[in-house]
Design goal:
Order of helices and strands: HEHHEEHEHEEHHHHHEEEHEHH
Number of domains: 3
Strand order of the largest sheet: 7-8-9-10
Strand content: 15-25%
Bound molecules: zinc ion
Oligomer: single chain
Length: about 290
């Protein structure tokens, strides 16, 4: 077998292949040795080969013994994940074992089933994240995956059965139309305070606003990199004035505040809502008279 065929076979299987799979498809020991010597494929560990162009996380997971999993898989699949994983999460399968490799900081997952190589499917990665991460991480990723059309009804039912019972309510709460991870996060946090949140609301006379909490408080979250220039600021001020004339209050936050300084955001929202007589439960923010 020519080296180009060895490379094609490996690529067809997602970039990583076992020697036994190559042999089954007609490659001899010598063909494999020639392909490795020429740099067409590389040896990851005993009996496992890969094309050098494969995703570095897929290569490391294969060195470790399995598939990219959990939040590492969710990110690789383009699903919104709250925290950037600093360690690689790897699914080894129910019975698989980890292999030593250099610079290993991987986190093992041993969910049932046989792991191969590559990236775990979205539904499995979500179930892994449900057990491994914060509830909010799971919830925002679940809505993101659903919105991207990556979860069938069967997947969603399977996830609901497979996640820990204490977070099943999050699966029931999730919607298919959440526009961003930030929206998922904000909605969940306000629900925990007993406050309803509408998203992307058209307020006549104001325009489309990001969120309206409890029907009285407009919350705008600035996702722009930098709030460039006077014209945008002027537009915001005009909108705020129009909203105030209609009896709304407006609070503005940026992405970093919502994600990293939630206590500050919560205090502001709770204080405004209480002033409007909206009951807020579950907040540790004390009332100031
Ligand atoms: Zn994990
Ligand atoms: Zn490792």
């Amino acid at each position: 077998m020519r080296t180009s065929e060895v490379i094609d076979l490996t690529e067809q299987l997602g970039g990583v292949i076992r020697r036994s799979a190559l042999v089954r498809r007609g490659a001899s020991k010598r063909d494999i040795a020639v392909a490795v010597a020429g740099g067409g494929i590389m040896r990851l560990r005993e009996g496992v080969y890969a094309v050098p162009t494969a995703d570095p996380n897929v290569l490391d997971a294969a060195r470790h013994g399995g598939e990219v999993a959990c939040i590492s898989a969710l990110r690789a699949l383009g699903i919104w994940v709250l925290d950037k994983p600093d360690r690689l999460h790897v699914w080894l399968g129910g019975k698989g074992r980890r292999h030593q490799h250099s610079k290993c900081t991987c986190i093992d997952h041993h969910d049932a089933g046989g792991a191969a190589f590559g990236i775990a499917r979205a539904a499995l990665a979500l179930v892994q994240a449900a057990a491994c991460c914060d509830d909010e991480v799971f919830f925002a990723a679940y809505e993101s995956a659903w919105k991207r059309g990556m979860l069938s009804r069967t997947d969603r039912e399977w996830i609901r059965r497979a996640v820990p019972a204490r977070i099943r309510w999050l699966v029931d709460l999730a919607r298919a139309d959440a526009d961003s991870g930030l929206e998922s996060l904000l909605r969940l946090r306000l629900i925990r305070l007993g406050v309803s949140l509408e998203c992307q609301v058209l307020v006549v006379g104001v325009g489309r606003v990001d969120f309206v909490a409890a029907g009285v408080l407009i919350i705008e979250v600035d996702g722009r990199e930098n709030h460039d220039g006077q014209s945008l600021r002027h537009k915001d001020l005009v909108r705020d004035a129009a909203a105030a004339a209609l009896g709304y209050e407006t609070l503005r936050f940026d992405y970093a505040l919502v994600v990293h300084e939630w206590r500050t955001v919560e205090r502001a929202i709770v204080a405004r809502l209480r002033r409007h007589g909206v009951p807020v439960v579950g907040s540790t923010v004390t009332e100031v008279n």
